[in-house]
# Entry
Amino acid sequence: MTATDAPLQQPSIAWQTGRVQAIVTETSRVKSIILQPANWSGHWPGQHVDIRLTADDGYQAERSYSIASPPEEKLLALTVERVEDGEVSSYLLDELQVGDALEFRGPIGLHFIWSQTRGGPICLVAGGTGITPLMAMLRHRRRSLARIPASLIYSARSLADVVYRDELATMARGDRDLRLVYALTREHPSDWNGHRGRVNEALLAENSFTREQNPTFFICGPTGFVEGISSMLVKLGFDPLAIRTERFGPTGA
Amino acid sequence: MDRPPVSRGFKSRRQAPEAARLPPGQYLTTDFPVLSAGPTPDIRVADWKIALQLGGSLLGKWTWDEFEALPQTTIAVDIHCVTKWTKLSTVWQGVSFDDLLKVVGLSEPPNAYVMAHCDGGYTTNLPVTDLVAGKAMIATRYEGLPLAPAHGGPARPPGAASLLLEERKVAAKAPLHAQGRARVLGIAWLSQLWRSLAGAAL
# Structure
């Protein structure tokens, strides 16, 4: 979608019906839906799918969800957070069961994507469930032979709200090229050594490589979060064209 | 077309009467979500410029104040974003593409395509048929107020009906160029806005 980045060919996106293979409870507000697509020619880490629900009277609702699984996996993982009064998220979290059919289409999105062939370093900044597309990037990175320098700065309300916490810990263990930084904004354990409060300029400067290393940034989270982080990065002197963003609208999805 | 499968246990949630204007799958919002591919640029109107070129020659160029002095058009449209939200009856003010051509002395578009260049290196290639006859404008005001930076302020260029989600790679050269330090908020978003525009009774 930009002139500076040769666009990939967008495949035709037809609706298809996937089968729910598993549902994983991630946190009290978040689950991952593991989906077996009918046909899938692969995706780029960072892409999303549209989900479409149809009631028996024909009423429909559609929402977009980021893909959390890497392209190397056959099953698609979609991570869904509960949105207050959200008709789609509440259906997916409360009603959907293993074995159900789920209509979706994708993959969609050509700007907020990364693959190991693009190299690094990469600096990923997540606000809440904004971690989802970034997780697909990290999972993909882990499967590549090249240890591409990466850092993840992950802002969550509390440790209990951190999605994929164990997997991230395992990933970071024994991988000196991956830096994992949490910012806990509301609650933290009394012995918490990590950052307390919102992500600030100092935390970004410490953990986002140097300008000379030309990191590419991927920022995903609520609109206010993404606005704040991206303007701090611009202020720190990083190239605005190297900062890619994905925002949830205030109404969410 | 095949009927989509019914989602077991999914209940219909019909919305207000305006829902009749809601395309299938969309939901109504009164918010104004932001969809952007990068940081919101800090563009001061004092630095803002827009130009129209044909081939290599300049047809016209305007500073912010000069652009504001051009004939203004106001339109009301429903926005249907590809990210599923719909916002009804949004009011935009700006300079229509028709007026822009008129001001530089063109009675009709000299080419079939226009290339819009924007801040951040974006380019969008647009079929002229989607821009003329009141279908497109460079918008500078939303609901009567200056366009906020996060929503493409100070001015946003046209998108077009045919873009949809796909990157449009137009094989034909597009010798008519519109250049502005204006901000594209995501081609998909724009295309939806302007798709609505194209369908609106003006």
Summary: The two ends of chain A are 22 Å apart (CA to CA).
